[in-house]
Amino acid sequence: MKTLYKLSAILFILLLVSAAPVNAQAVADPLSIDVLAVPSITVDGVLESSWFLPMNYVAFQKDGVPTGYANTPTAGAVVKGNYRDLSTTNVRFLHKGTDLYISLQSNDQQVCKFDWEGDGMFMMIKNGSATTELKLYIVSDGPGYKIGVETGGGAAAPAGSYEGAGVITGTVFDSSDVDGGYTAEAVLHLAQIGLTSPLQVAINIFDPDHYSVPGSPWGTNGNYYKQWWGSEWGGTWRTLNLVETNVPVELTSFTAKLVSGKVNLEWKTATETNNKGFEIERSLDKVSFNSIAFVDGKGTTTSANSYAYQDKNIAEGNTYYYRLKQVDYDGTYEYSNVKEAKNEIPEFFSLKQNYPNPFNPSTSIKFALPVDSKVSLQVYNTLGQVVATLADGNYSAGTHNVNFDASGLTSGMYIYNIKALGIDGKVMNATRKMTLIK
Q: The whole model's pTM is what?
């Protein structure tokens, strides 16, 4: 049995090690990269925060140096002109089951095409004795251009098995314009083309610059540089290992509850990576959101954490919508789902029992008004003498809460009475007892 316990302990330690975050040990031309698992990715070209969690990736830049998690590719070549661009295109990988996700993040200031080779990625995957070609780059879109996907090779991906989209900040083929780069995402459904991990790949990143119009790629304008991880046209491969180590799921729960005229927001995280904090946003129409507060995060931690915030600026009769904007230290962010909190107007007049009761020295008294009313709320001793006035004025329809501090009173029973004259002409009157024990 002792041997069995030792083996169990060793297996447990190995599981912990395998689930640990990826180490930042970037190298030049890594032979393989582990692809981490995620719950989901929306393929729309807008990069979610999951793409920026700790993971190894390939950073394509002429004369780039490996640093942190940014590995550098195998080689590159100037295809045309006096290329002097220092832009970087980061290529990252994630997976969900047998779906492989790929993202591109580039700060290229000249987005254009050289012949068919537009800014973006040309990827080859070894598929038996053939090759599946996957492109995620600038393509024609009617009279204009966009980032799109194409497939080819001896084992082209079947329809529906490869999808992608991108976002370009700037104007394609405008050499006078300083572009803000582009981002792109693609998903390859491996099961549909019969591929399993590990994957043998070769990846090219194309970076043509200063082409003002689509014309002869060898004309007087433009220059072009390409880099590859593995080889330019296949034959030398690098490996993607789809592993089940999860990218940390940051937000595990988020609730919004209306309590005593205030909205209590609570949320929890399982783990956090590079988390600066949470911006709390509120809306009245579920469309236009405004920031109302910021709650600091825990940076990077593998421990679960709980957070809370109370919104006290609540008007009666409104429905409020809340969302969290989780912000990383590098400026990237991701929104939570929207939660609703409805501050409904009560149907009937009521005076609630104070809480706590008995009390020492203070207690809370709540009353509900179905319409706007002129309210008087007073506290009496057993001789019928007024010892405190808690409310004397106009109150809006809704639920209200007042505090009674009896520090200057002696122990005993007290009576509190409310009189309310509603704008509808109705008079409301109610009385309750409470006990002060010192």
A: 0.56
